[in-house]
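Sanity check

After download, print the first record. It should look like this:
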Amino acid sequence: MTAFQKHIIWTLARLSFQSRSPGKDRLWNFIVAKGSGCYVLKKDLKRAYWQLPINPEDYKFLGFFCDQALYFDTWCSFGLRRAAMICQRTTRVVIYIFTHEGFSV
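Expected structure tokens:
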């Protein structure tokens, strides 16, 4: 892990975030502020949890027994105690990176 990645993780661990929907008025104001020719993209994160891998050292905590077989989740599952926090922090890192690359996020 690079020093930059450690800094981002350290910073995000100490921040609290408030999640909210943009609403039509906020979206309209954003488009008007950016002017003609701006692009507005939306990504549906419906399955975002399944895109985040679990550390292999933690597989042992995610096992379950069903039909005489033992199974382990290797990707973040909705319903885990920390899943929402993991997803939120990952999203914030992506936003941070894109913002510093010059994109309006």
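If your output differs, re-run the checksum step. Summary of this record's structure: Residues 83-100 form the longest helix (18 residues).
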